[in-house]
Amino acid sequence: MNAVTNAKATTSVQTYARIAGLLFLLSMIGGGFGEFYVPTRIIVAGDATATANNIVAFNSLFRWGFAGYMLEAVSDISLAWIMYVLLRPVHKDLALLAAFFGLVSTAVFAVAELFFFGSTFILGGADYLKTFSPAQLNTLGLLSIKFYSYGGTIFLAFYGVATTIRGYLIYRSSYLPKFLGVLLVLAGLGFIAKNFAAVLAPSFPSDLFMVAMLFAGVAFTLWFLVKGVDVAKWEAKAAGA
Questions:
Q1: How much is the pTM?
Q2: Which of 28, 107, 130, 218 is the most buried (most CB within 10 A)?
Q3: Over the Cα atoms of the chain, what is R_g?
């Protein structure tokens, strides 16, 4: 490899690493806004009428929440490919498997998002909905959001598997820090545990598992934005692969 080719490869790998950090940051911002901030302002647990009134009154905020989900989805799809490129020198098949799980998780979440946004059609006051009473429409609107919530929970299992595999590959990489791999493995297992807890033990305080993902996400974002990868070791690993 000549000097020019080597410089291009170095720039390319580090660019991918910086983009990965940026995409993860955008995913956390979009997801945090759409999944946590907006619901706390609009959804009233167990009260269909109050939730419906909030959706109508704060319709613009509700739509911005959906836009946050779209930002998260676009970032996650792009991140699935970039992480495959960065981690394939460690184990190409596992890196590809992680990418598949990441894409499936985004697809599942996209279906769930349709139920979230679908509540605006139910409560939109269209003529074809006049056969339902206001109370029935309010209930259907909240039910649609409930479907979204469970769809989002199912998404966590697939995303957790992708995160766990990526954490393992980072741990084995030698060109990324082992502690980052450990954090991602713990976060991924937490995601999977949260999914099964929601199905098998709904009363269990599974939100505790999200703390691990938040901590891992912040560490991942900062490392990839600031440090990136050890290019020399990445190239050596890629050559060996």
A1: 0.86
A2: 28
A3: 21
Contact 184, 24 (CB under 8 A): no
Domains contained in the chain, number: 1
CB 144 within 8 A of CB 122: yes
How would DSSP label each residue in 36-68? IIHHHHH--TT-HHHHHHHHHHTHHHHHHHHHH
Structure tokens at 61: 């905020």
Cα gap 180→99, rounded to integer Å: 18
The widest CA-to-CA distance across the chain, in whole angstroms, is 74
- Residue 135 CB: number of other CB atoms within 10 A? 11
User: How many Å apart are CA 33 and CA 148, to the nearest integer?
Assistant: 16
- pLDDT single digits (tens) 211-227: 777 888 899 999 999 99
| Residue-number span of the structural domain to which 194 is assigned | 3-240
